[in-house]
């Protein structure tokens, strides 16, 4: 997919410039010239909070780009020939501009010109706001790469082109679980629509009922409340009742869960989705009734869906706009043969056991997942995906899935997927090129056809400046390694995965040396490149930690022996990693409890070792953790 990257980039730039400058394009009027504009922004007098914020965002970034501050007025103000109309208002009716708001839903919008007026019209939830962001992106070239890095081009003269665009997103639910991008403004500007951080001005979010997001069996029927007196409410495993899961076929469990779901919805009416889903372990109920259902359905998903359908039916009448979500995860991933989810049930399928070096649709290792996805897509109206986009065993290690992110999202959508959460390092800053991953994921969730080469190039150029080609070369080395050699890339494994060979590390090191040299005169860009290099330095440190090869000498086993010498270049890399990682605020090296402090303690001890004697025989035996 990344072949001919240069040609693709040139073509995308040319296409983008044609929007603004192509002489054959029909023009609707001069929008701004030398910091002056005759346009005003018009919203309804009773516009929603997000529509008012949309007007403010348009005003803010238009001024930053062109130096012209457009006034914001409501639809009671006198008409002008040159106006930007945002949302439904009396002005649309006066001008007899028809918009099918029902068709657009909560997030769709139209962009159209009527004479010298520009209409940005969608719902007062998020449609108007998202329409404004498309105008800012496509007409002014604005990009919000990270919460702190953006590009707002300076424009002296801008023509308003003839527009007739309708945009309705393919996905109703778009989430990026990444610590580095958990910023409400960044998420809204990149059309991420689910998190508690999104405020009314951002159009709110696709919210779960508070407290019931995932793995909720334990919360709906607490073991400390019920197990002592009613062990039959819980999973039977090898003839014994355990608190690992519920017994989904127990009728008393049904009534308790229904009551708890209704109570949770009443307490938090802002939520529209509530999770009734298995606990996070590999245990399922083996009682006679659950086993009978599972056998008939050919899947342990049978017992879970049996409970979920009962709950969904019980709330449907009083809560027609709510959905019950459950997981197809680990032992419940395979769809049942006969049972179907009710219309108000969402099945969230997990990619946890897949490899991410190749697209899920075409890789041999991914056929089991593909069968499950395609099966659920045929029987469920609302399939959501829980996808994984980093190396959870060691967040900092490179995880070169850059080329498959958009392929997988396109494949999901083709199989009736309507929502996706992309889980990355949600606990700490500093996973490999986190800003790039977050930007790519946000782009593809909103527009699956945006293009990997286009999105990557604009991010690297906007964030790293002259260092961009060298970081691109680093990405290409790793992505080509796993693709060309078809190396499996699961999300769990060792500190020294097969694609991080010494030759690869040395080649990547050279690319980062060039990247550093390219921005050496810019402290800001240099700091960004140094942080990008953290993952590579971590991989390099770990490689020689377990395969010393002359970098470190020990008395005995490297895992326990005393360090008696360290190569000066290796020490310098450790010192650089320590300085940059502390500045980055890293707390987690891997998923789980905070472990960065312990890792730092080990590195600092290693760094204090004496320089290795030049004539010291290196330890050649390799130790793999």
Strand order of the largest sheet: 3-2-4-6-5-10
Q: What low-confidence regions span 5 or more consecutive residues with pLDDT below 50?
A: 1-27, 615-625
- Structural class category: alpha/beta
Overall geometry comes to: flat
Radius of gyration, in angstroms, nearest whole number: 27 Å
Beta strand count: 20
First and last CA, distance: 34 Å
Report strand %: 15-25%
Per DSSP, the total helix count is 21
Main beta-sheet annotation: 6 strands, mixed
| Helix percentage | 40-55%
On the 0-100 scale, what is the average pLDDT? 91
Quick rundown:
This protein is of the alpha/beta class and 625 residues long. 40% of the residues lie in helices and 16% in strands.
Written account of the structure:
The protein is an alpha/beta fold. Helix content is 40%, strand content 16%. A 6-stranded mixed sheet has the order 3-2-4-6-5-10. Residues 1-27 and 615-625 have low confidence and may be disordered.
